[in-house]
Specification:
Number of domains: 1
Oligomer: single chain
Number of strands: 2
Helix content: 25-40%
Radius of gyration: 27 Å
Length: about 70
């Protein structure tokens, strides 16, 4: 009886580890932002200033950006 139980445990273990190894990891987005901050040179009051931040998706899935806030 002990041999049958041990064999059943090994069989279940082999099936479960085979299933876990067979599933591919889900594709996920990965955001890369080379520069997180920018300091402007002094400007006159009321003068408009602009800076573009580079945002890259180096992941395997679509990157969705929902909120952007200034600091």
């Amino acid at each position: 009886m002990k041999i049958k139980t041990t064999a059943a445990v090994w069989l279940v273990w082999m099936v479960l580890t085979g299933i876990a190894g067979a599933t591919a990891p889900a594709a996920v987005p990965h955001i890369e932002i080379p520069s997180l901050a920018y300091t402007f040179d002094p400007v006159a009051e009321g003068e408009a200033v602009v800076h573009d931040f580079v945002v890259r998706n180096t992941g395997e899935a679509e990157l969705e950006i929902y909120k952007v806030r200034t600091g």
